[in-house]
Amino acid sequence: MTHPLASWKDGAAKQAILDFVAAVTTPNGLSFVPPSDRIAVFNNDGTLWVEYPLYVQAFFVFDRVKQLAPQHPEWQTQEPFASVLKGDLNAVMAGGETALLQLVVVTHAGMTTDEFAEIVQDWFATARHPTLHRPYPELAYQPMLELLAYLRANGFKTFIVSGGGVEFMRACTEQVYGVPPEQVIGSSAKTQFELYDGKPVIRRLPELYFFNDKAGKPAAIQHYLGKRPIAAFGNSDGDLQMLQWTTAGPGRSLAMIVRHTDGKREFCYDQTGMSSLKQGLVEADQQGWIVVDIQRDWQRVFAFELER
Amino acid sequence: MTHPLASWKDGAAKQAILDFVAAVTTPNGLSFVPPSDRIAVFNNDGTLWVEYPLYVQAFFVFDRVKQLAPQHPEWQTQEPFASVLKGDLNAVMAGGETALLQLVVVTHAGMTTDEFAEIVQDWFATARHPTLHRPYPELAYQPMLELLAYLRANGFKTFIVSGGGVEFMRACTEQVYGVPPEQVIGSSAKTQFELYDGKPVIRRLPELYFFNDKAGKPAAIQHYLGKRPIAAFGNSDGDLQMLQWTTAGPGRSLAMIVRHTDGKREFCYDQTGMSSLKQGLVEADQQGWIVVDIQRDWQRVFAFELER
User: Fold this and answer.
1) Are A62 and A188 members of one domain?
2) pLDDT > 90: what percent of chain B?
3) Is A241 close to B192, i.e. CB distance below 8 A?
């Protein structure tokens, strides 16, 4: 039988997972946690799958703008659409939050929730990562897939708690991670129930309802679950408060931070602006959170072997 | 063996439940639904337990005001607190929404989520219904408890989707209904994650975040679950849109409305202002939704026998 964490190298990170799971699942043990309270939360981008050079959802936005462009001839000259259509991502990014919000609104709002789900599912079925040239569902980290499965095999309920759009993520989380839609918490748009031609629909409105990042994450966990997790996994300071909340519980807990250190097998952006991982490392050191160094701790990064 | 719906009288309502469950669970049947999509949603007050003469949560508010009164001598003369302390509920109600909101704020906000959970749990452990003289957890409807268990035994995941405060309901839903906190959707206050004396807490703020009623219910279901239910149970027009959304799905579905017609064994307020059930009955008639008449359809209302 293959070890359930076969893609993890032997070392402190793997051992911390094994020790933690053994401790909380040993009946009559000091740290035993009943299955109903075995809640594990995972950030998505950069923790469960690739986020470099941009979030997967950003590539969806750009592809969708290109797809809608024939219906919007004015986009050829109107920013930020013109730069997207030219493929000039630096120019898009230079437009800052306002530009990004405009792009999100035209690609994510106006349609019903059913229509949006179909658009995203269709995209996932054909889109490929611009530099890795693989469908996005293949860009999940194999060690994290094994970790999700290992925790579930030990009675854990696994949740995604991520800054990505909740309905965007739900289009693939069950297929990729085995996490059903009702266990995905993300950022969300305002929506409105209405009767459209006599048929009940839920329409996506062009307004942010909730941004699931930083201090919003523990608040959302409490809001959605009403329970404090005992294990949390992230990779940036956007996950800091989620890890603080998880580890401040009364019993044993596990907190892990993934560091992107492997330019050969994945991407190395650990010390760049992209990662935004500073305070997390300071607290990891102080609190004994586990740092997962991809180069050092993962035997294999993807299910396929990347050739470069 | 006792029949799983032993407290339901034979009749159209019971038969509709049996037929529906048989249809969606028969492998290779035309209406088969895989277990992951067997989602059933229940309103709480008036559907799963007593809501008369006031919502259970209202009694919590009044008791809590009395408990806090010694720290607020000004309440003796200040409305709406003075009327609560005198037990003059009509005067409280005359203050309308503003008065109720004031009462909710002082009893539901300011403390951390952990502190609030403890306050509510303590209250449930000792409080009794003012006219039935029973602890509230005993005031769940026995036929609905059997229905919840029957659906779960047939692979359904059962959710509460109610206008009550989500953290208030969570203090008892697992014990009373077997529904864990993460399967409870309700109205909610804004909250804020903060470090308090260096310790992470989530604080309840004096502001409504989401009111889970009417058109808000299907929007919340989509927001939290990302899946359309196939069964929905309510008792007022506050549940109308939830039933519309549930029954507008592509496959077979079940929608039921409980009518409070039994003044002897429970309360009869079917044709009064309290019930607010008008459009629901019209659509039930048009759409073939099942009306559950307590007097006609329930063999027993509570686990105990009420003596009056």
Assistant:
1) no
2) 93
3) no
